[in-house]
Amino acid sequence: MLVVAAIVVLSLVGAGGFAVAGGAAALLPERPEGCNQPDRTVTLYAVELPRDGNQIRLGYGLTPQTASYPGPTMEMIEGECLAVTLHNQVPAATLEQLRTDPTHPLGVSLHVHGVKYTQLSDGTAQSFSYVPPGQSRTYTWYAKKRDRTAGTPGTAGYWWYHDHVVGGPHGTKGIGSGLFGGLVVRRVGDPKPDRTYMSVFGDQQSINLRRGAAADTCDPVNPVPGPTCIVAKKGERVEFIVVGIGNDMHTFHIHGHSWADTRTGVLTGTNAETDQVQTIDNKTVGPGDSFGVQIIAGDSVGPGHWMIHCHMQFHSDAGMYTTMHVLDENGNMPPGGGHEHSATSSGAAPAGSGAGVHQHK
Amino acid sequence: MLVVAAIVVLSLVGAGGFAVAGGAAALLPERPEGCNQPDRTVTLYAVELPRDGNQIRLGYGLTPQTASYPGPTMEMIEGECLAVTLHNQVPAATLEQLRTDPTHPLGVSLHVHGVKYTQLSDGTAQSFSYVPPGQSRTYTWYAKKRDRTAGTPGTAGYWWYHDHVVGGPHGTKGIGSGLFGGLVVRRVGDPKPDRTYMSVFGDQQSINLRRGAAADTCDPVNPVPGPTCIVAKKGERVEFIVVGIGNDMHTFHIHGHSWADTRTGVLTGTNAETDQVQTIDNKTVGPGDSFGVQIIAGDSVGPGHWMIHCHMQFHSDAGMYTTMHVLDENGNMPPGGGHEHSATSSGAAPAGSGAGVHQHK
Amino acid sequence: MLVVAAIVVLSLVGAGGFAVAGGAAALLPERPEGCNQPDRTVTLYAVELPRDGNQIRLGYGLTPQTASYPGPTMEMIEGECLAVTLHNQVPAATLEQLRTDPTHPLGVSLHVHGVKYTQLSDGTAQSFSYVPPGQSRTYTWYAKKRDRTAGTPGTAGYWWYHDHVVGGPHGTKGIGSGLFGGLVVRRVGDPKPDRTYMSVFGDQQSINLRRGAAADTCDPVNPVPGPTCIVAKKGERVEFIVVGIGNDMHTFHIHGHSWADTRTGVLTGTNAETDQVQTIDNKTVGPGDSFGVQIIAGDSVGPGHWMIHCHMQFHSDAGMYTTMHVLDENGNMPPGGGHEHSATSSGAAPAGSGAGVHQHK
């Protein structure tokens, strides 16, 4: 029978309320079902980093010395269970400064998207799964495979992890200070990139909390790949983990390259359904959203300084842009573009030419 | 031949203008093609509800006494034709208060997304398909199947219905006051949920027009499922109809659970194309957007108080969050989480712990 | 081995920096790989159009006399290579007025989404690929096919082209003044529409830079299809190229019609994967986003004045709406809707009834 159901007539058959039941009740589980014990362990440190002007900066690192924002990119294979032990080395005084409500607890945490974890690894204040200053806590993440019996999809995808307690119950100050990083869960057979870059689009027109020239610090002679220097050789498979944080909507746009709007960013398969997949070069990213972009650097289009920017015009105008520098197969940037024109005519870069990489002669 | 066509060179061959043609012209049809007569009828009432502070609240109900916001969730099967008779019991004086333009007509209406309807069921002022105070009108909705000859897709999906005339030509005041509800159109064989919840994300950081503690009023001892109490037992299939209303962008995020970004929220099929479907746990929702989320409550992650919130940080901080309470298979909430820590240590819930459900001993 | 990789440990093996290498280095290529020479050429003019109030208006045209905003819709077939020669006829004085930074160069350009182009056709100031006043430049676009060896998707899709230099390094003033147009790349066998309309959603609640009555200027007796008059006969396949520009988020919503969220806007195929494709009637569009909507005008729902609007309520209330006028198969608008009620009762159109098309008797 076809029915029109008012929500309010749903009833919870057999519900005994939230109160703890009698002696037979099990405790909340420590690990997700399917993870009997972790396949691997990682140690992560949350530390305070040098301030960026007046801005407090925090970061996650595999060692306290290598902490950064974004934090280290984690990679898992579907089926794997990972135990991440987080040490909170952020001074209590700093956490107090970031706290607006004196009744909110002091601590940092690890809240992850996409993979499975129990309440004890939720990373929230309400579940008490955070780490007070000077202490540590182990979070268990399970990259569950698709379960056709239960009807649940797999966890392979592009995700991120972040603090959920610094400053308030949603970790707004923790995220805003730098406590976030990327997570890729791959399926066996997924394409493996030659390079992986995080592109975290956030408030104040920032990419990875920087904007304008600060978002591209590539040394033109010896560019060192990293969060503020995106460089690849022609033909390399480059992967972007795109994440939105903060309060605003953004779009991720890259010049000269496009990708398939799929789980991996790559198109596979051969039939009519494959033919329906959208190829895009601009995608809206809201806070909490994450997706993967996989491209072949310079494919068909060749080397060059390819812009990456938010297509909200006032965002890009305010500095929400960076550049993917695609070198030729030998690692050189060929002449022939406007840069050489610049050098040979007036020597002055045009306004808005961005980072220092354009000053090469 | 490949062509570059300027839009302006398109011409309307044979167009005779909008004016009514001679005697041979047919009237605008009352029902969509394919619906000879309704398979089913529903009676709906639009009424005024108690104010929420100064806010006027209206609601749709299957009876005047059970009207609510959101209104009753409608369910149809592809191929079905439904006649909904709407009785406008909202006082004319209330509608006048909500009207900013004295030339705009007084009335309420039913405008539906996704399914088929003729101009006479459009629910707009410009088509005069609204209901003046004290009157009624029958709207015909047709859940058309895919038509491979015409090349049109089916109408199965997650939709919503809403007023389109209260206050102005777009029903802004009607929607903002509570005149909206969910509609699910299923295809034969689609997974059937054990529970369905509406999550309408709107202005002023509201979920179903409430925020903060008001968005989760679950009684910890006897939680009654409803718009402000999301509860399920482990293993139950829970469906969310997520809808955006108002002026702002939001994201729907749920902790510990994820879903397939498909028509049903569930992943089916076995080949390379299936493998390309994205699993997500956060999705941007703009006004007018609607999508379905289907999850197995507690799958792998177990029972607990799982947060649902907008991931725009200033939205969640301002109260745009609620909780899905997942009980164990027996309907109990197991101990072991932070809540018991709280009870046994200081007894004080942390700031931001949300609704009263956390005060259980 | 499963690894946790910090981004910063990526290294660029063999990178020689951006500086020009020795004599063996090739120049930046003029054309994308795969395009040995253009299959077709197009001439495009950028001109100044009459102001819209105080607003400077620019447009692209296949001739200077036919320039408009949006510019001509371009159409390509996958595999095709197109050379577009752009003549900049916009007065230097106008470009100076639009420039906020006196060091930014004067010129207009062509930056295209989706298809392939080298740095020399990037249309940016930093690559010097723009056109100073009174000059011309040829841009080469290559609608590359899917490359299964490289693992790159095809370029078929709904795209747009726009200026990237007027006013500043992101072309904000060029786009805002009207320098944009649509591009459709089709694959052999893709459905061919009977009519194509551009729907560019932008700042100040504009559709194609107009709003309110200005967005629908259809003559009720002889409606001439164009950017401000959307009209079709029942049964015609109508295609919308939906593009977002400017600073704001919007949603594209159409009454009575829906489409498949696929590459073409049409659903093809027969299996379980096809069944997972979402049918939608409202889609969020951020700046830089573009997608295609294909519908059969009046399918099942019949003729009528079908609203198209942004579902952000304050946007539609402020005039971000237009109408698709669906005539019957003979090109007439049948009586029977509210319009005739209006004519026979008071003769007054309700507030918000929109463009003059509702005044037909």
From TrEMBL, chains A, B, C:
It holds the Pfam family Cu-oxidase_3. Residues 329-361 are annotated as: Disordered. Residues 343-352 have a biased composition (Low complexity). GO terms for molecular function: copper ion binding; oxidoreductase activity. InterPro entries: Cu-oxidase-like_N, Cu-oxidase_C, Cu-oxidase_fam, Cu_oxidase_Cu_BS, Cupredoxin. Gene3D superfamilies: Cupredoxins - blue copper proteins. Residues 68-186, 225-327 form the Plastocyanin-like domain. Keywords: Metal-binding, Oxidoreductase. The keyword Oxidoreductase applies. This is Copper oxidase. It comes from Micromonospora musae.
